[in-house]
Specification:
mainly alpha; 58% helix; 0% strand; elongated
């Protein structure tokens, strides 16, 4: 493994993303908690080593692509209960990973709403006595 030097482009890109994320979190309405992304030099270096197998620094586009893939992995697991380990961060563009993650979120939300509706139907079920059956045998004691 060679010594990786973080490029100024990547450092500036990640710092801009972190600043944007922090501003979004700080703009939360009163009582709403929002987390934000924060990466230091060691984090950036870790991701570069991990995603390039220690060969080089990621480009800003590759950083976005890897982060979008990580989000897709989480969304897919939320929807299906397993991580799609058959995928690789470099298989798709960042935009495609974002689209796939959005689709997973939509399907997971639809599934959640269907489960809640079913649960409500079961909890709110009221037994209705069936009508008397004509010509039925009635036993009186």
């Amino acid at each position: 493994m060679q010594n990786i030097t973080i490029t100024e482009d990547l450092r500036n890109h990640v710092n801009a993303l972190c600043a944007e994320s922090k501003a979004w979190a700080e703009a939360a309405p009163e009582g709403e908690f929002r987390g934000y992304a924060s990466y230091d030099e060691a984090d950036i270096l870790h991701y570069c080593e991990h995603y390039t197998k220690g060969e080089r620094c990621l480009t800003p586009a590759e950083w976005d692509q890897a982060k979008a893939w990580e989000e897709y992995m989480d969304c897919y697991k939320s929807e299906n209960g397993i991580r799609p380990r058959w995928t690789n961060w470099s298989d798709e563009t960042a935009e495609e990973w974002d689209r796939l993650a959005s689709e997973c979120i939509e399907r997971a939300n639809a599934q959640y709403e269907a489960e809640k509706a079913e649960e409500n139907a079961v909890n709110n079920y009221e037994f209705e006595s069936p009508a008397d059956i004509a010509n039925s045998l009635v036993i009186n004691f």
